[in-house]
Write a structure and sequence with these properties.
Layout (H helix, E strand, L loop, with lengths): L12 H9 L3 H21 L3 H8 L1 H5 L2 H7 L7 H17 L1 H14 L4 H5 L7 H17 L2 H26 L4 H29 L5
Helix pairs in contact: 1-2, 3-9, 5-6, 6-7, 6-9, 7-9, 7-10, 9-10, 10-11
């Protein structure tokens, strides 16, 4: 991370040196967990709106690489793993807001669970509404109920997965390659939903580390 990111979270040079060596998986894991805990504690203890806004928009300015180096190899059912997946979800939505909104809207039409209500997007949900939802979910990690934010993200993924699977069924005969891509996306959404849901349960039991 750049020096300009020191205000939201201060990490010692030793932590970065241990990580940058990249040779010891235990060191990499330790740094991932320590940075995630430090960042979350620092902001949630004093949720300054400007700091939260900078964190939400961090990848817009700096890209995803800095966060990838910190958290991408973490266990999915861990604090850094949860933060990484929420940032990735937001990035996916912002890079293809129209396509994601289409899958989400289709999902609301075919899913039978309460996930659309839990996710909290308006109906119908267009690109602007989906993008705003992604920002609200990420913001909720820092200034709201952490587990609720994870549950909302998981619900969003389940709705999008249902939509992707439904569109894949439509395309199966005329465009099997596209149908296969959508099926794979549905599986990834489903897996991410399961991981985020597990993280929410661990957080509520004070076991998410």
């Amino acid at each position: 991370m750049s020096d300009r990111f020191h205000k939201p979270a201060l990490f010692t040079s030793g932590m970065f040196e241990a990580f940058m060596g990249g040779e010891d998986p235990a060191q990499i894991s330790r740094v991932a967990h320590e940075t995630a805990r430090a960042l979350l504690a620092r902001v949630r203890d004093n949720p300054d709106p400007e700091v939260v806004a900078r964190l939400v928009a961090f990848t817009d300015e700096h890209g995803i690489d800095a966060l990838a180096e910190l958290w991408s190899r973490s266990n999915p059912k861990s604090l850094p793993g949860a933060l990484w997946r929420i940032y990735l979800l937001r990035l996916l939505i912002r890079q293809d807001a129209e396509g994601t909104a289409y899958l989400y809207q289709r999902g609301t039409e075919v899913i039978t669970s309460i996930d659309p209500v839990v996710a909290g997007a308006p109906t119908p949900a267009g690109p602007a509404e989906i993008t705003e939802l992604a920002d609200r979910i990420l913001r909720g990690l820092f200034e709201g109920d952490f587990a609720v934010a994870l549950d909302r993200a998981a619900a969003f993924c389940r709705v999008a997965a249902a939509g992707a699977a439904s569109v894949a069924d439509d395309r199966d005969v005329l465009d099997p390659e596209r149908a296969s891509e959508l099926t794979t996306r549905a599986l990834r959404f489903t897996r991410t939903a399961d991981e985020l849901g597990a993280c929410a349960r661990l957080w509520r039991s004070d076991s998410l580390d």
